[in-house]
Amino acid sequence: MLFLGLALLLAITAGALSAAQTTSLELRMSRNSHDAALSLHAADAALAEAEAWLVAIGDPADARVYSGDRRYGDVAPWRDRTVWSAHGRSTGMRLPGVVEVPRHLIERVTTYQSTPFGSPPGPLVDVFRVTATAVGSSRATVVRLQATYARTRDDGRVRRLSWVELES
Predict the structure, then answer these.
(1) How far apart are alpha carbons 45 and 31 in whole angstroms?
(2) Could you read off the pLDDT of 123-145 as tens digits, one per residue?
(3) Which of 109, 128, 112, 111 is nearest to 70 (CA)?
(4) What's the rounded Cα separation, in Å, for the pair 121 and 117?
(5) What pTM, to 2 d.p., does this model score?
(6) Of 50, 48, 45, 38, nearest in space to 139 by CA
């Protein structure tokens, strides 16, 4: 009888330890998921701030815009720390729960004249690439988003052409 009681107590203890370990793992997964969502929203806020600047000003000659000439095979400007230190901008907002203020980098990609087929030349269009980076509640969670925008010079209309989440 004593042996049966000890075996039952051992089984209950093993079940409780297993449940505690599973709960701990699920809690870590939930925290990591929340942190990733937090950093994604912070990076999206940085993209929105850059888009608002493009709508309001959008001058390709502005000091905030990186327009360095790149040759084929050069490192992308958003991967270059010196470009970030010279042209990257911190957002004006302090978001609760994030370790660092989100940042964005605006690059001038090209300027072209929109000319629909069979029509007279249209207005000039500036194309910008905006890269936003944000850190969540831990420095290990970094999200980088990149969007491409076209801004028509005559009316200042801005359109988002593409959006992608980059690997960190």
Answers:
(1) 21
(2) 889 999 999 999 988 888 999 99
(3) 109
(4) 9
(5) 0.79
(6) 38
| Residue bearing tokens 């690059």 | 107
Question: d(Cα 17, Cα 4) in Å, to the nearest integer?
Answer: 20
Contact between 66 and 82 (Cβ < 8 Å): no
Strand-pair category, 103-113 with 158-166: unpaired
Separation between Cα atoms, residue 47 and residue 68, nearest integer Å: 21
Can you tell me the distance from the alpha carbon of 43 to that of 45, in angstroms, rounded to the nearest whole number? 5
Kindly write down the DSSP assignment for every residue of 97-126, as one continuous string.
T-SS--EEEEEEEEEEE---TTS----EEE
Residue 65: left if φ>0, alpha if ψ -120 to 50, beta else—which one?
Answer: beta
For the stretch 96-116, pLDDT in tens is 888 888 999 999 888 888 877
Q: Any idea what DSSP says for residue 62?
A: S
Cα 80–chain centre separation? 16
| Cβ 161 vs Cβ 146: under 8 Å | no
Using the structure block, give the residue that is written with the tokens 């910008």: 128
* Closest alpha carbon to 94 in 45, 143, 55: 45
- Residue 152, H or E segment: strand 142-152
